[in-house]
Design a protein that fits this description.
Layout: H1 2-8, E1 12-18, E2 22-28, H2 45-57, E3 67-71, H3 75-87, E4 91-95, H4 98-110, E5 117-121, H5 129-138, E6 145-149, H6 156-162, E7 167-170, H7 175-195
Parallel strand pairs: 3-4, 3-5, 5-6, 6-7
Antiparallel strand pairs: 1-2
Length: 205
């Protein structure tokens, strides 16, 4: 699509790649006379470098020692998001559909070892995330459930909240935002569990 357009302008399009580093895309076109035209070079270079350095240096929230139940049926998302959560320090338990997520969440509560956060994909086979979340709330489950969905249309967030989710995140995930969101609700979960842990035996996962 790009090459024919560049050729129509009398130019050339080229790509060079280095494994492990990235790709450089170059376009050259015939501009015609440039007399009295002021050339601008590196107009945003220093600013961009500062922004990149600031983002790279910003610390990620820690999920160390938090137990996350991750319900997701897609193999690629299972690997990617599990990796992101584990890299931040979380202990991740995977459920490939809503029914398994429901069963694992209830079993963990019964063992007095509940998950700190459930990250619930909303489109899954057997039992979807909407139904699984609704059933958990009907069973009296009070700990945080974060919806995870590829749908980002107006009203999608409210649909997730209406069935009992505490918050909503979209795919593809933003690593920093996801970890920050999970960490925030995991801390809230600590308070909820502490308030209900009177005379209860300690959690042994």
């Amino acid at each position: 699509m790009i090459t024919p357009l560049v050729e129509l302008l009398g130019g050339e399009f080229s790509v060079s790649s280095t494994v492990g580093e990235g790709s450089t895309f170059s376009v050259t076109v015939s501009t015609g006379p440039l007399d009295n035209v002021r050339l601008i070079q590196n107009s945003v270079g220093p600013v961009s470098e500062k922004v990149i350095a600031k983002v790279a240096a910003a610390p990620l929230a820690s999920l160390h020692n938090y137990r996350i139940l991750f319900a997701e049926d897609g193999p690629d998302n299972q690997r990617l998001i599990s990796f992101i959560l584990k890299k931040a320090g979380a202990e991740v338990t995977l459920a490939e559909n809503g029914q398994i997520a429901f069963d694992l969440a209830i079993a963990a509560v019964e063992k007095n070892c509940p998950f700190d956060v459930i990250l619930m994909d909303m489109q899954m086979p057997i039992l979807d995330g909407y139904s699984a979340t609704r059933r958990l709330r009907e069973e009296g489950y009070t700990l945080p459930i974060i919806a995870l969905t590829a749908h980002a249309m107006a009203g999608d967030r409210q649909k997730c909240l209406d069935v009992g989710c505490d918050e909503y995140a979209t795919k593809p995930v933003d690593r920093k935002k996801l970890i920050g969101l999970v960490a925030s609700y995991a801390k809230q979960s600590e308070g909820i569990q502490a308030a209900s842990a009177v005379n209860e035996p300690p959690c042994v996962s």
